[in-house]
Design brief:
This protein is an alpha/beta fold. It has 16 helices and 5 strands. Among the domains are: about 145-245, no CATH class; about 250-410 and about 445-480, no CATH class. It is flat.
Amino acid sequence: MNDTNNARKRQRKDDDGDSDADKQPDKKKDLKGILTSLLLFEEQEKRDQEELDRASKEEKQLFESSHKNKTKAMVEYYSNLQDYYTEAEEVERGKRKKSRLVAGAVAVAVADSASDGLEKIDKTEKRGSNSGHHRRLWVKDRSKAWWDECNSPEYPEEEFKKAFRMGRATFDMICEELNSVIAKEDTTLRNAIPVSQRVAVCLWRLATGDPLRLVSKRFGLGISTCHKLVLEVCSAIRTVLMPKYLQWPDDNALRKIKDEFESISGIPNVVGSMYTTHIPIIAPKISVAAYFNRRHTERNQKTSYSITVQGVVDPRGAFTDVCIGWPGSMPDDQVLEKSALHQRASGGLLKGVWIVGSSGYPLMDWVLVPYTHPNLTWPQNAFNEKIGEIQRVAKDAFGRLKGRWCCLQKRTEVKLQDLPVVLGACCVLHNICELMNEDMDPALQFELVDDEMVPEAPLRSVSSMKARDAIAHNILHHGIGGTRFV
């Protein structure tokens, strides 16, 4: 029985061995099939990539070929266009040459009819042949009748003052002061323009603001000559006259200024009244946004550009300090911070004194401004009333400045880089007129409409705030200045 079972087990093992042997060839076949498929996939992917590269290369070659053809066509077009213009210029040049020849022939025919003229021409040609190349100089003859009439001693004083914003005595004084700087010598070709005419051209241009072509007709000079004269005289005024007539006062003058302002308002230690105005300009080529004046644009319904002029004046309305040229988009407090006046104050030169400004300036250790918050008390109202009288001095001075020199009222032809020189000259001339008691025609009065913007930080000094409150208390309760609130 045991032998039978053992025989069965051996038979079963032999059968299992035969089945395993049969399965091994099948597995090898499957593995070979998978490897073959992978190789086929790789070859197919390689062929696809080659096709893509070939197509991309052909497309690139096609694009380059098309670009070359277009470039060639454009070059040929511009070459033909240049040839056309060259031919047109040659034709035009030929026409001009013919016209000159015809004109020359006519001139020769006319010259032949006068024997005296012929002799003069012969002599001139001989001199020209001896000196080398002969060149004939032509100077356009312009009428100077109007200026000759103005320059005459018989010309009425009122008419002269109306034309140049000052009397003849003041005009002669300016000419004498500038003579050493702007005088020119005569040459063999022409006589130099007199100093008086040079100054008159500048003053007429500043006073009227007329275009250069009209100034040219008035004085019988070329347009470019008038432009050059205006800049030269303005530069001379800044160099020679500004140190004499527009400077910060000395100690003696400051004491007088304090007394006069205190007599006006009852506020002590005031040495100046400050105001900032805007001068319209043509839109500059660079930094246009910086010179854009939003407030004037909104009011006039017209795009406006400007530069600023900050000035401090004494009780007579004469300028003691000016800051010119900052862009019109800057508020008054920023212009003040960038001025030389602020630098002097930071150095301690304005310690213990006040410069009165409008609500567009901040309250500082040396800048006194009115109260701006609502619901003012009686002392604060009294203070604002009295400080307003000092503010009016500066505003009226700027009104006379723009009224005398009308070039400040409208956009000018002067370039932006030359404008500070011209504006500085206007301020100096204003001071001279004020010093010489030159009355201004009431018809020339100019009303300022500059807008004030309250600064972001209106209070920048606690001690100044307390000092302002003390001044307001004294004005009301001690009857300083005769305020109407008492």
